[in-house]
Amino acid sequence: MLINFIIHIAIGIFGSNYFGFNRDGLVTSYAVAFVIQGVDMFRFYTTYMNLILSMPPETSAETLEAFKRRAPITMPQAYLMKVILYGTVTLIASAITN
Length: 98
What we know:
Elements: H1 2-14, H2 23-53, H3 57-97
């Protein structure tokens, strides 16, 4: 999570000409957050699945079933919140440097 803040703050600082509180700046900021957080959610998913698969078989089956039940609801919600949060962090970092 800390690395995400650092990445988005750095993007906001170095790309301050592209991110602003206008239509193009908002779209660009959230598009960048959309891509970066998509990669991060993929990393989270693969890491969590590897953790589940490395458990003993009796525990792994139950945990995998619970994850498959919850994932279609929780993963998109977490992704959307991360895009909003980190897109806003990029905008704030850009506004501070301008």
